[in-house]
Amino acid sequence: MDQSPISCSFLTLNLFSDLPTFRHLDRRLEIAAAAIAQTRPGIVALQEIVRARQSGDMGAKLCALVNRLCGGQHYQLHYAAADGLGEDEWKFEEGIALMSRYEIAGEIEVFKYPSQVRITASVGNQEYRLPDDRVAMHARYLIDRGVEVDAYGTHLTDRNEEQDGVGIRVLQSRELLQWIERTSGPDNLVLAGGDFNDLPESATIRTLTAGGLIDLHAAAGDGPGFTNDRGDLDIEGRQASPNQRIDYIFLRPPRERKYRIDSIRLIVDHPSAEPDEKWLWASDHFGVLARLSLG
Questions:
Q1: Buried (b) or exposed (e) across 223-241, using 16+ Cβ within 10 A?
Q2: Which is the most buried residue in 53, 109, 192, 203, by most CB within 10 A?
């Protein structure tokens, strides 16, 4: 008897903290949570998760909202700090998270990229470091009896600095590939998603695809799949003009199982109609949601 296909779904979404003003943050988290609860992805990779006195814990807030809308404690969130700054009431920390309704099948792992951009500012005779450190995180999930998925989330630098003539994002993509190779199960499906801050034709993305990862939108998506506006989306605007694809989901096929990409599409790609004829976007990025079947 043939076994029924096993379903797996993955969403990546940059939540846009809008630090330090956090405009409409609680309402925007509600909009994002409603979209997640409606689509119920198995795994969610989140970026720009801030913990600060003014914002609270964005990840914890979002997870609680999603679970409330789903009617139970369906999702668990694991957070990884990337960087931070400040003291007392001005202290903040920013990172990424993986949230899932699947059972964890191992330890959560966090990887700080060896290649980082160093940003400084000078005040008087004192030089101060500004935060831009980047990380990736990994979780192994049990999606069905005996079927594991290695999931990765990341947020590469948006800076264009180079090291020995090579862009820092390119170096980070190489380091991510090497880390995936070290930490993933050789037979497992690998899904890696996040804000890679680079275009499909860039050396950053070519490095990942040349290393064996499949860009799911390039493989099965419709249209350009733009996820962001390089001129910055107005989160209070009625219209958006997305013009670049910088948010991705990558796949490494399982060794022994057949797989099928059932769909890949954008979510939170329209504004919410608010009272008084106002509009509000969940983020300045659109989410990318992929659904797969494993044989």
A1: eebbbbbeeebebeeeebe
A2: 192
